[in-house]
Amino acid sequence: MTDKPVTTYVVSVFEKPHWRTVLTTNDKAKAEALAKQIGDKVQIEETTPKPKRR
């Protein structure tokens, strides 16, 4: 069985002195819409796990 790794998008907001995660989703459009709505000091991280070797 070969499952493709799924990309996860993490939206974070900077609140002094740390970054706070607001949303974790597999939908890029939803992540970008939330970041645009929040405005300033927002970052979107894109993570894709590597497939396991056998």
Features:
54 residues; alpha+beta; 3-stranded antiparallel sheet; 1 helix; 3 strands
Blueprint of the fold:
Layout: E1 8-15, E2 18-25, H1 28-38, E3 42-47
How does this model look, in words?
This protein is of the alpha+beta class and 54 residues long. The protein has one domain. The protein is 20% helix and 41% strand. It is built from 1 helix and 3 strands; from the N terminus they run ββαβ. Strands 2-1-3 form a 3-stranded antiparallel sheet, covered by helices on one side. Strand 1 (8-15) and strand 2 (18-25) form a beta hairpin. The protein is elongated and about 45 Å long. The model has no long low-confidence stretch (mean pLDDT 88).
Helix content: 10-25%
* Rg from alpha-carbon coordinates: 14 Å
Which structural class matches the secondary elements? alpha+beta
Widest sheet: strand ordering = 2-1-3
* Helix segment tally: 1
Number of domains: 1
Beta-strand content bin: 35-45%
How many β strands by DSSP? 3
Give the overall form: elongated
Low-confidence stretches: none
- What is the succession of H and E elements? EEHE
**What's the overall average pLDDT, rounded?**
88
